[in-house]
Amino acid sequence: MLLSAEHITKTYGTRSVLDDVSLYLEPGQKLGIIGVNGTGKSTLLRILAGAEEPDSGSVSRDPNVRLDYLPQLPDFDPANTVLEQVFAGLSDEARAVAEYEAKAILTRLGVPQLDQPVGQLSGGQRKRVALCAALVSGCDVLILDEPTNHLDSDMMAWLEDYLRTFKGALVMVTHDRYFLERVTDRLVEVEGGRLFFYEGNYTDYLAAQKEQERTREKARKTAPEKKEERPSGPKKLRFSYKEQREYETIDGDIAALEEELAAIKAQQEARASDYVALQELQAQQEALEAALEEKMDRWVYLNDLAERIAGQ
Predict the structure, then answer these.
(1) Is there a contact between 39 and 85 (Cβ–Cβ < 8 Å)?
(2) Who is most buried in 102, 138, 195, 251, counting CB within 10 A?
(3) Higher pLDDT, 287 or 173
(4) DSSP readout, 163-204?
């Protein structure tokens, strides 16, 4: 067991984010943490990484295991050069071993000026420097919070390949369900202060959700009801008027939200030195991501319903 978190509780004010939850990480596991914004995904990662203490419960880490954590907003020394920031905290020996790989990764991630002060970089470039630092640290456990933010499609494809072949264990939060699909082998959903575990990738998670919905539907059908005189014969499934309209437009709605998210991320890059603007843009990003998550859930429901209607 690389890491175990047992009976973790975390409350902010009167709001309980995590309520007596437990999680265990085995060697080689690749966990994806999912859930709508504000449910406690990043809080869970910080607690696992030791960056934040729970109100109650305990986290145990194998003393021989090295862990590295990439937060959403990494700390940095603005006077450090890019390479100095990547190697901060590493011994001279570890730096010598990692230097070639670090330079290659930074080039892949679009940060070629290795002697540039970190304070002169955009917010996206700084996040990529922090990502590189985590990847070359020689750790056994990687904990990554939104590692795909500020990456273009080529960078994401490269990171996907890197993490798939990574020999250590991985715990990751990302809103990119396609990335989750291809990298993770187990999903943990954070909802209502509790953790729900699903074996497999995102497709397996969606299948499990559908099966749970079928079970609930079956239970509703078999539950005793007040007897009424109704016409005999099964009632065929069909879209309501509202569902039909939603089904016809949801692909466009998702595309529009994704475009808005891309525009917000571009603004974050352009205004990386404006802290007030970045805070506002971050709030807009979180709202859009929550809306997109909700739309994706509706997309799954509506397409499943459409298949069931067609199969009648």
Answers:
(1) no
(2) 102
(3) 173
(4) HHH--SEEEEE-S-HHHHHHH-SEEEEEETTEEEEEES-HHH
**Sign of the torsion formed by the C-alpha atoms of 134, 136, 139 and 142:** positive
What confidence score (pLDDT) does residue 295 get? 81
- Percent pLDDT > 70 in the chain is 96
| pLDDT reported for residue 312 | 73
> What's the pLDDT at 101?
94
Measuring CA to CA, which residue among 21, 12, 3, 7 is closest to residue 61?
A: 3
Instruction: Judge whether residue 13 has pLDDT over 70.
Output: yes
> Token pair of 34, please?
């999912």
Q: Are 20 and 9 in contact (CB under 8 A)?
A: yes
Distance of CA 74 to the CA centre of its chain: 16
Render the burial of 27-38: b for 16+ CB within 10 Å, e for the rest.
eebbbbbbbeee
Conformational region of residue 23, where left means phi above 0, alpha means psi within -120 to 50, and beta covers everything else? beta
Which residue did the predictor score with more confidence, 236 or 84? 84
Question: What is the distance between the alpha carbons of residues 146 and 285, in angstroms, rounded to a whole number?
Answer: 13
pLDDT higher for 38 or 115? 115
Average pLDDT over residues 64-74: 92
Segment among 73-87, 183-197, 251-265 with least mean pLDDT: 251-265
Domains of the chain (ranges, CATH numbers):
3-202 (3.40.50.300), 238-312 (1.10.287.380)
